[in-house]
Design goal:
Elements (H helix, E strand, L loop, with lengths): L1 E8 L9 E8 L5 E5 L5 H8 L7 E6 L2 E2 L6 H7 E4 L12 H11 L4 H14 L15 H14 L4 E5 L7 H12 L10 E5 L11 E6 L2 E6 L1 H4 L3 H6 L4 E2 H6 L9 E2 L4
Parallel strand pairs: 3-8, 3-9, 6-7, 7-8, 11-12
Antiparallel strand pairs: 1-2, 1-4, 4-5, 9-10
Helix pairs in contact: 3-4, 3-5, 4-5
Bound molecules: adenosine-5'-diphosphate and magnesium ion (MG).
Length: 262
């Protein structure tokens, strides 16, 4: 269980409160999405959830471990995998294959298990033909796939995806999300994904949508419930699926509306 208790956050030397009194509990086995306008605090919240950032006040607990306790940092990072918005911030190795194995080596997985996992993930994410490639020569979309494979290799319990499909074409977006969400029970044991996205249609892979506005959670509901407030969301700069916008006769030219269904 991930539990945030009244967390607030400001960056050093900045008076702006980026997260404001966020309390939320995410149970194992849930699939959660997060939407919010640019700058609403989504990435900051993600970093608080895996202990990369400490809240200025309030507490974050991961399966009973408090992110403030330095001794538990490593355990927390393994439990809460994170795929960053910008893949260049994440890649550290000289070849694609080593990158996928890197985290597993650090965590001292058995040799055989490591090989089988790396092999399976390279296949799953269409990177098999690229195993000796230097990651910096991959396309943006391939880098995103590589980051995802590398994080999944470490078998996290919770997986935070911070706009993981922003560089992918619609076909690859769907493939990735299906592999994470639809096969959760089969290939990726007990994974609890938390998907930060700007594509409203992607939230339907999850059963719970949190909406952030100026550092506050303003809605916590099933996606189809949340989008009933399409007018309000559009005014906050949050995309809604086309059919919800049409119902309300919102002027599509004035607001961000997702026009491409998955
Ligand atoms: N390292 C940083 N130092 C100072 N301010 C930051 C830093 N990172 C983000 N911010 C500010 O925090 C706010 C929230 O940013 P972020 O969490 O990245 O939002 P989102 O992911 O929703 O776009 C923004 O106003 C942003 O400018
Ligand atoms: Mg962000």
């Amino acid at each position: 269980m991930i539990k945030c208790e009244r967390i607030c956050f400001s960056y050093p030397n900045s008076p702006v409160q980026v997260l404001r009194d966020i309390s939320v509990v995410i149970q194992e086995g849930e699939a959660v999405s997060i939407m919010g306008a640019n700058g609403s605090g989504k990435s900051t919240l993600a970093r608080c959830l895996n202990g990369l950032l400490q809240p200025s006040s309030g507490e974050v607990w991961i399966d009973g471990l408090n992110t403030r306790h330095k001794v538990d940092n490593e355990k927390i990072r393994q439990k809460v995998g994170m795929v960053f918005q910008n893949p260049d911030h994440q890649i550290v190795s000289t070849t694609v294959e080593r990158e996928v194995a890197f985290g597993m080596e650090n965590l001292q997985f058995e040799h055989d298990e490591m090989h089988a996992t790396v092999d399976h993930l390279l296949e799953e994410f269409n990177l098999k033909g690229r195993l000796d490639h230097p990651p910096h020569r991959l396309s943006g979309g391939e880098k995103q796939l590589l980051c995802l494979a590398s994080v999944l290799a470490m078998k996290p319990r919770y997986l935070i995806l911070d706009e993981p499909t922003s560089l992918l074409d619609p076909y690859s977006r769907r493939r990735i999300l299906e592999s994470i969400f639809k096969n959760r029970s089969k290939s990726i044991e007990k994974l609890t994904p938390i998907l930060i996205t700007q594509y409203p249609e992607e939230t339907f892979y999850t059963n719970r949508l949190l909406i952030l506005s100026e550092g506050k959670i303003i809605s916590d509901a099933a996606p189809h419930e949340a989008f009933k407030e399409a007018g309000k969301l559009c005014r906050l700069g949050i995309g809604v699926p086309l059919e919800y916008a049409l119902e309300l006769e919102i002027d599509l030219d004035d607001h961000r509306v997702e026009r491409h269904s998955l």
